[in-house]
């Protein structure tokens, strides 16, 4: 079966819209955790403790991601790439809608935080099978010589999802002011998720299975135990790539999640803080496109090194300027999210699938994603603790710098290809590897 231009566009739309919807669902929770959940789902005796507990439920999803990675990667490497992508999208939408309907602590007592934790855990399982699956799917459908660009496209769903979620929350802070936002306003964006998921489900249901996977299946080249084989034969690559992803993820979640509560604590209104995130996310869509295009022409090592080095150098100036003025907050957040982050995330979209053969590719990439998740999910929690413990942004900045160094060391340990021909040959070679 040959993929024509129309079907290729549908594949791009399915990947991009699906990841956008899933990240919309995911970031809604992060924003609500910063603004609402502490006082709504937990006892109000100590606001700081309530906020930390709220962030703890945020971490639960990251702890669940490895389980989701194992479950959905098995389906992806044994049955097909398409099925888990439909399941994760549908599950994420249903769970997000249920969170929007969940009563608060004053209504149902301890059941409120318990049910919130359960739903958040299930949300994490769904997320565990999404990113790895969609970048593998895009790589296996990409035209020759454009694997870097196509592999980077799913990452657009991250800022688009962030943009939609923060825009929805910003709108509701205007429509439902004061107590109305706490009582019902925040729930509307969660419940609206079911409509978006319906659209995404329709598009993803109409895309073809990966031709690379079909060929491996027809020639009986699939692994019976993809998890075992991925760990046994590729554990070194998995650990190195976890290090690569670690610094990028910590940077992203601090800038997009923790900074919301940090900035409101400095006196900025929640609406103005969300507007800053919106502006940065919108610009990031365009910078990600440019960075994705560059990955087919420029050294991937150089791109990632530039991004990781920037996180180390920019961490202290970032928090210093956030505290100086609102205009400073706007400028440094745009630099942090729209300029620095794209150089790290776009490389991963094509590099990670390239590191594994077809029969364990979904598993390998998802394991990297899943293993990293619990480590970086603690980022907002750690940042909150450091700020309360030392009463200084320097401690938070040092945390970011250490994460950047870990990624820098990890990327130096990788052997990355530089030009189109080498990248294409590398991927094709990996696709034909058969584990006996």
TrEMBL record:
GO terms for cellular component: plasma membrane. Pfam families: Sugar_tr. Keywords: Cell membrane, Membrane, Transmembrane, Transmembrane helix, Transport. It is a multi-pass membrane protein. GO terms for molecular function: transmembrane transporter activity. Residues 11-421 form the Major facilitator superfamily (MFS) profile domain. The chain crosses the membrane at residues 21-43, 49-72, 84-105, 111-137, 149-172, 184-203, 250-270, 276-295, 302-320, 326-347, 367-386, 392-414. It is found in: Cell membrane. PROSITE patterns: MFS, SUGAR_TRANSPORT_2. This is MFS transporter. It comes from Peribacillus cavernae.
């Amino acid at each position: 079966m040959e993929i024509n231009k129309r079907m290729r566009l549908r594949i791009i739309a399915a990947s991009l819209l699906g990841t956008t919807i899933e990240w919309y669902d995911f970031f809604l929770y992060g924003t609500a955790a910063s603004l609402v959940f502490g006082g709504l789902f937990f006892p109000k005796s100590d606001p700081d403790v309530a906020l930390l507990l709220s962030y703890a439920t945020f971490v639960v999803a990251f702890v669940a991601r490895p389980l989701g990675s194992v479950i959905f990667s098995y389906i992806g490497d044994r049955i097909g790439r398409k099925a888990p992508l439909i399941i994760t999208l549908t599950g994420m939408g249903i769970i997000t809608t249920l969170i929007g309907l969940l009563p608060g602590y004053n209504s149902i007592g301890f059941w409120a935080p318990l049910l919130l934790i359960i739903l958040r855990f299930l949300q994490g399982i769904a997320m565990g099978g999404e990113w790895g699956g969609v970048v593998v799917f895009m790589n296996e459908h990409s035209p020759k010589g454009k694997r870097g660009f196509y592999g980077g496209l799913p990452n657009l769903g991250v800022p688009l999802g962030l943009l939609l979620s923060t825009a929805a929350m910003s709108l509701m802070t205007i429509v439902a002011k004061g107590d109305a936002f706490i009582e019902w306003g925040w729930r509307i964006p969660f419940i609206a998720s079911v409509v978006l998921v319906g659209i995404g489900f329709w598009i993803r249901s109409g895309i073809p299975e990966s031709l690379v996977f079909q060929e491996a299946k027809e020639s009986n080249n699939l692994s019976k135990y993809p998890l075992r084989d991925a760990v046994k034969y590729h554990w070194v690559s998995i650990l190195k790539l976890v290090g690569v992803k670690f610094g990028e993820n910590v940077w992203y979640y601090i800038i997009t999640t923790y900074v919301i509560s940090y900035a409101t604590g400095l006196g900025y209104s929640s609406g103005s803080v969300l507007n800053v995130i919106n502006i940065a996310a919108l610009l990031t869509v365009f910078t990600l496109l440019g960075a994705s295009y560059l990955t087919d022409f420029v050294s991937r090592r150089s791109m990632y090194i530039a991004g990781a080095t920037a996180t180390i150098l920019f961490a202290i100036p970032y928090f210093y300027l956030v505290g100086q003025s609102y205009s400073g907050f706007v400028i440094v957040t745009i630099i942090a999210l729209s300029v620095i982050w794209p150089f790290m995330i776009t490389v991963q979209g094509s590099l990670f699938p390239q590191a594994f053969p077809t029969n364990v590719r979904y598993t390998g990439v998802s394991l990297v994603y899943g293993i990293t998740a619990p480590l970086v999910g603690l980022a907002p929690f750690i940042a909150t603790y450091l700020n309360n413990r030392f009463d200084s942004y320097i401690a938070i900045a040092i945390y970011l710098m250490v994460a950047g160094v870990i990624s820098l060391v990890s990327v130096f340990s990788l052997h990355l290809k530089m030009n189109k021909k080498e990248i294409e040959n590398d991927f094709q070679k990996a696709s034909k590897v058969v584990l006996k």
